[in-house]
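Q: I'm writing up a methods section and want to include an example of the input and output format. Could you take the sequence below and give the corresponding predicted structure tokens, formatted cleanly so I can copy it straight into the document?
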Amino acid sequence: MPRFSIVVPSHGVAGRLSLALDSVLAQSFGDFELIPVCDAPDAPAADVVAGYAERDSRVTPVHSPPSDGLAGARNTGLKAAVGGHVLFLDGDDVLVPGALAALDARLGEAGDVDVLYFEHERTPWWEGEPTNPAAPLLARTPDGAFSPGRAPRLTGVALPAWSALYRRAFLTEQGLAFPGDHYTDVGFGGLVTLGAERVAVLRAVVVRHLLRRQGNRLGLPGDHHAELLDQCELVLARAVEQGLSADRLSPLFEQLFAAVLKTAAHPRRLTAGRRAFFRRASALYRRHRPAGHRTPGGSLGVQHRLLASGSYPAFRALRAANRTALRAAALLPRPRGLRTRLRYALGLRLPLDRNLVVYCAYWGRGYVCNPAAIHAKARALAPHLRAVFLVEPDAVGSVPPDVEYAVIGSRKYWEVLARATYLVNNANFADAVVKRPGSVHLQTQHGTPLKTMGADQATYPVVAAATGSIARLLARVDRWDYNLTSNRHSTQMWERAFPSAHETLEYGYPRNDVYCTASAEDVARVRKELGVPDGKKALLYAPTHRDYATGFETGLDLAEFCEAIGEEYVVLLRAHYFYDQGASRGGGRIIDVTGHRSSEDVCLAADGLITDYSSIMFDYANLDRPIVVYADDWDVYRETRGVYFDLMELPPGRVAHTPEELAAVFRDGSWADESAASLRAAFRERFCQFDDGRAAERVVRRVLLGEPPESIPPVVPLAERVPAPAATLVRS
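A: Here is the clean output for your methods example:
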């Protein structure tokens, strides 16, 4: 039997889960079992855990459906545990070095205790000093093992479940498990303290808790806050059954109702049902108030007295000033111009238009990318919805004649932003846009991340300087309700780069649907439109942006390259959209397609792709056509921009480092041989997971039509998809 069982729920933390698991497996004390709890065998976290389980026999994953919540995940892990003592660690927290050795030593000193409480460090996600909130509470406890009655303020309800170690036999004998779902730590902590006979403390930090930017789910509005009263009633009823002494019951009662009053007075948690919450809390307060209980002093004491008297009007008046100030701050728009601000503020007072959808792509560059693909599918599946595309003045010409649009900054622009229920973007809306209650923001993204993004850019000075305020960026991220991904890698990286409370939709990128639905006739039409000569092999050259360079530099003499590879090829040049200035860089066998509205069309026309580190490679891989990576400055790019994986170890095809090497792979045919196809197959397996031609349908049904997840069409397996045919290449 191992000394410790460490249970790690993993829902929603796949991008950071490895930090928690590494912190356990790196402990100097090795007598433990590690039990990660995943949603399902095919969940994002399961991919992470599988690698650990293969490498270390102490890792034994189990599964608990997301519908069972945090409590269900912990209870599932607890049932699987066989260790002498159980420790619960959240999936984005870590054990400090030497933590298990310190716990083992303290147990050796204290003897066979039911619970060993310890300190934890709360680390701000971005900036600020770490805090140790448990230290003052534990400092006032006896030094050795003691009965709970000797430290009555150590009630357990003020400490999270991961700030204690539990004797497994004690939990089993007492029949203790995590109750309910929300506020489960309150109920579990209280029941544990009521059942324990011998406890001890370790006055040292064991767990380092990462404070999430947006706070935990208990800070979000909703009916789930009523569960706090359920947990309080559960604990207080058990205390009455046990005949708990007044000196223990009073601090337990006080700590429970401190949490209740904090929730009742919070400006955002109870957006509806606040009066009902207060009345139920008042009845609970009067029923369980210990005889002779003295109310605390100050403002908290006033709230206690109002709760005891059931005076909701007075309680509401007490918090009115703060509520008014917070509402004013939340509704204060910041668009430029006083008249525009007033108009937008007025629009925010009007009801949401339940049938209005606002789309935007690439900061208004036109009718393109995932937003355009979703819009097109919504016209077929949800024709009752009114759609407005937001574009810059010089992009109006890209909008199809039958698509309604608004010019960014115009009066109509602010009017539709104020009243739209659905807002769809592949970048971000302006800082001034207010996230209204009831509105739904969908972030579609516009690529699979190889280079670092979002918060992960902060450690790369060149990139961070160009990005601007990371804090402002993440404030925009907080408006998201859904974030779209096209593969499991993206799911994990977006979670790291954009930490927030949004839901991830592993539905694929709608713009990539065409790669599975286009016909040979579609390919021929696009090639003719782009001016690709009949019978020529078209190579798409699509380099990415360099944060350390100014202006557009191809890094490759395309005229010399064309001369070196022979007359059978033409090159389609597509510069990064940062450099789309409308001026042609083509001539001869070089066709500049940078200004073409659709990158999907350009990819369909190309028989092969040459790129450096552009995310277009992930989209193009859906076509199962050859890809060559031209990596002439990989080391510089990796050091200055930062990357999520080593492309040189996991390339989608042949890799060339010099113009001579690049020309050689086309002259000898190795760009499209069996070895290149094998590399591409592995790449597709990892990065083309969800792009099956039905992504747009899934998004429309789930987000715009509100259909339940179980009714959404499943992803077609990769082996069953038939990519659009290439013009000159025959796929095996």
